[in-house]
Amino acid sequence: MGAHPKGDALIKDNRISQRTLGQWIADFPGCLGSKVKDTFHGQLPFLFKVLSVKTALSIQAHPNRELAARLHAQFPEHYPDNNHKPEMAIALTQFEGLCGFRPMDEILGFLKKVPEFRALVGNEAAEELQSADGDPGRTSLALKKCFTRMMNCEKKLFVDQLNMLVKRISEEGERKPCRTSTPSCAIMLFRFYRLCPLSSDETGLACSSVPEAAGKDTSGSNGELLLRLHSQYPGDIGCFSIYFLNRILLQPGEAMFLGANEPHAYLSGDCVECMACSDNTVRAGLTPKYIDVDTLCEMLNYSPAPVSAKLFPCVQDNADPCVYLYDPPVPDFTIMRVQIPVSARQYTVSALDSAGILLVIDGEAVATSAAALSDITLTPGSVLFISANESVSLQVTSPSGMTMFRACCLL
């Protein structure tokens, strides 16, 4: 949902001559709002997505503006634009991912307990990392050396070590059943709009102080996850990334923000995702797509942090108690979760000095607006583009309230 050249959204109403959102914005740039239009040179600055992840997505990171421009100039076939791509994922169902480098004690613990992992990093680099613990500068350099050594090791070495690790974990599992709980992926979505809505009792939890995320298995070899990734991508070096990166488990309404150069991967579950308007991704594992190991290893932020630091809290809007704001530290986008209670039959989507995209997750309503050619029936999966300084009135027709997400740019 957006106006990127590689994925320009189609306009459904046949009475509008412009067939795509990008064409509409080009003809009527004032719809963006004056600040957005001037700041982003007449372009909608964000993309909005819904992801339903059954198989793990690649180990990846997104470049900052400077690196994005350089990569686009050198390799336009792989990096199709010159923009940065910070992004945020908000869980719709239980959502699992990898995000940022683990705390040092966890990485060192795995280097000690998982000999196959240590064999790829090498004793010298592992000992250097251990001796650097406590010095942020030395730790960052040593962590970069360890990760780069692993990602660049010979294929025969990492395939042999991965096979040994899979065999060992499988045999250990036969002796002692694995108790690690994992998100259920047995029932997957056929259409993205049949999602699990947030209930009223989940709303307060998701927007209060963020809890410690699950998935912190350092007692052994993180075996359940290793076997799962190996079954999806057999013989892939990315399987070993779980010993470097935090495993995060988001509950509905919880979010994680991924800034420039932050290593991450999505593993399972459903989420809404908003990002700067870019298609630049540097990949290095768990993917059949183009990989660029050297660029990824060079660009990453090698700052260890606990998984709790990767959770991004939302705040309730002071002006509208139905709105919860996810406002990241970048100007390109803000996400609002609109939670209309069961008791409400009418609601107004307020006007902003920014264009916005409204996505209905749950519930039904009839929408009216001064700018609309006619009333619009909203059901799960409906998507509205709302021009700047335009409000939308909703007559809620579903008995269970509504859940919607709105992407915009609050400068």
TrEMBL record:
Domain Phosphomannose isomerase type I helical insertion: 120-173, 222-245
Pfam family, one: PMI_typeI_cat
CDD domains named among the record's database cross-references: cupin_PMI_type_I_N
Gene Ontology biological process: GDP-mannose biosynthetic process
Domain Phosphomannose isomerase type I catalytic: 1-103
Binding residues annotated for Zn(2+), in chain numbering: Q60, H62, E87, H264
Keyword Kinase recorded: no
Molecular function GO terms recorded: mannose-6-phosphate isomerase activity; zinc ion binding
Active site: R283
Entry GO CC: cytosol
Cofactor or coenzyme needed: Zn(2+)
Domain Phosphomannose isomerase type I C-terminal, residue spans: 325-365
Domain of life: Eukaryota
Stored InterPro entries: Mannose-6-P_Isomerase (IPR016305), Pmannose_isomerase-type1_CS (IPR018050), PMI_typeI_C (IPR046456), PMI_typeI_cat (IPR046457), PMI_typeI_hel (IPR046458), RmlC-like_jellyroll (IPR014710), RmlC_Cupin_sf (IPR011051)
Keyword Zinc: yes
Note describing how the cofactor binds: Binds 1 zinc ion per subunit.
PROSITE patterns referenced in this protein's UniProt entry, alphabetically: PMI_I_1, PMI_I_2
Keywords attached to this entry: Metal-binding, Zinc
Protein name (database record): Mannose-6-phosphate isomerase
Organism: Cyprinus carpio carpio
